[in-house]
Design the sequence.
């Protein structure tokens, strides 16, 4: 029988060792938990198997740091499962909500710079709350497939910690919100599936894709893991099994900013411009830019309470790009991030939105429908336009867009967005880049080709 990987404290180097410790590593990879009193063997996703040794907290390797508003970047006090006095020593607030932040895979074995930023934003929005950072850095710095398997053990640690809080202090799980990034999102899902009562909410921040895209629900984040599960997908490029972020929906609401594949401001040109403007202060964001954008979008929702970004339900990102999904009827639109409206449907809800390249990320979405009229039937492709919107509060000029096709006597719909709030639309100016349309032969053709009608709908105000 394999030894219990958690009960025996090993030197950290043994985790990555290939000499003499492989049987211990296999024990962790297969997520086997022998109960030493009965000799039975438990899988990580088996609730019934936890009953006999459930008060044995020695096997928990993850650490639970209660961060403070004054020092959001320091681990100054740890909550220790089984040690009742640790909560009093760390000034845990028993009457307020608790955020549990779970980091992802790390190459350096150190916390990434987003961790204190998220902690700080949570405290600014909820000053009386408890923000706990789960430290599983030793397991998270292994080869990716090894760390991916460790998410089951981390999830088990978190579940035992939450159950202890509920049983020992009668702490209500309705106050618990888990936030997991990348591999941490799946650890949060495992934790939610193992707690005896359901936690209130899990937010998945671009859950990791490799080894999880086709995984069974108990080993990854899924809608069953909390009363409400919301997910941000920000880096879903490539084939499903090789995408950095998971592509399929895994929550009650799955939001795909900018289509989910690539985020604005994350290309090399934008990176150089940002460094030129702001120096190297945010250069770390550029390394894992699109993947980590999920976190910064959530931070944005905490800091800019009065400016929530709106997302819109749509079957495909192609339909969204045509502006066909800007309806708010029957819960078809929602806030991104902290103040999301909890909508639970029988099937996953996929939602889309555009964002800016920098915080605050909110933009304003418009559907524009143009009807072209012509006495002669004709079609042109890839036609560039400029559109300007003038409103009661502001204006947004020369927004460039390209219509893949322009045909006479047809209506075409497309999406545009502005970074400024123009208020109610008063006037629209549309410019067709005619040089691209007329060729020498066209000059001798006696035809008329006009724009007969333009309709505009605002996603944010729902006005037409």
Sequence:
């Amino acid at each position: 029988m394999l030894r219990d990987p958690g009960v025996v404290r090993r030197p950290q180097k043994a985790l990555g060792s290939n000499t003499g410790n492989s049987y211990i590593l296999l024990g962790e990879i297969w997520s086997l938990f022998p109960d030493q009193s009965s000799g039975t063997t438990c899988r990580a996703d088996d609730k019934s198997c936890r009953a006999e040794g459930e008060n044995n907290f020695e096997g928990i390797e993850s650490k639970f740091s209660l961060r403070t508003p004054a020092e959001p970047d320091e681990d100054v006090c740890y909550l220790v499962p089984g040690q009742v006095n640790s909560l009093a020593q760390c000034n845990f607030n028993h009457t307020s909500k608790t955020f549990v932040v779970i980091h992802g895979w790390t190459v350096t074995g150190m916390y990434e710079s987003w961790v204190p930023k998220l902690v700080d934003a949570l405290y600014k929005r909820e000053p009386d709350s408890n923000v706990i950072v789960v430290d599983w850095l030793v397991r998270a710095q292994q080869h990716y497939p090894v760390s991916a398997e460790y998410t089951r053990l981390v999830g088990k640690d978190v579940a035992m910690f939450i159950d202890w809080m509920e049983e020992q202090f009668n702490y209500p799980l309705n106050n618990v919100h888990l936030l997991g990034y990348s591999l941490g999102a799946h650890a949060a899902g495992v934790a939610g599936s193992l707690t005896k009562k359901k936690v209130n909410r899990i937010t998945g921040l671009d859950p990791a894709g490799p080894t999880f895209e086709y995984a069974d629900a108990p080993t990854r984040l899924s809608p069953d893991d909390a009363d409400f599960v919301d997910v941000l997908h920000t880096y879903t490029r490539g084939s499903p099994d090789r995408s950095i972020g998971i592509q399929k929906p895994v929550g009650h609401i799955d939001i795909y900013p900018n289509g989910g594949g690539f985020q604005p401001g994350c290309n090399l040109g934008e990176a150089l411009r940002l460094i030129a403007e702001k120096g190297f202060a945010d250069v770390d964001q550029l390394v894992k830019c699109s993947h980590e954008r999920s976190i910064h979008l959530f931070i944005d929702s905490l800091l800019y309470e009065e400016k929530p970004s709106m997302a819109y339900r749509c079957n495909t990102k192609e339909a969204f790009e045509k502006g066909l999904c800007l309806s708010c009827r029957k819960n078809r639109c929602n806030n991104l991030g902290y103040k999301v409206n909890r909508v639970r449907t029988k099937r996953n809800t996929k939602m889309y939105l555009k964002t800016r390249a920098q915080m605050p990320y909110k933009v304003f979405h418009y559907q524009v429908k143009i009807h072209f009229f012509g006495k002669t039937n004709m079609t042109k492709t890839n036609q560039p336009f400029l559109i300007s919107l003038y409103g009661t509060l502001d204006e947004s000029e020369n927004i460039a867009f390209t219509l893949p096709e322009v045909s006479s006597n047809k209506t075409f719909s497309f999406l545009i967005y502005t970074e400024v709030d123009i208020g109610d639309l008063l006037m629209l100016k549309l410019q067709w880049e005619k040089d691209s349309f007329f060729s020498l032969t066209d000059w001798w053709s006696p035809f008329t080709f006009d724009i007969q009608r333009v309709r505009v709908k605002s996603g944010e105000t729902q006005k037409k």
The two ends are 69 Å apart (CA to CA). Residues 144-169 form the longest helix (26 residues). The CA atoms of residues 385 and 433 lie 6 Å apart.
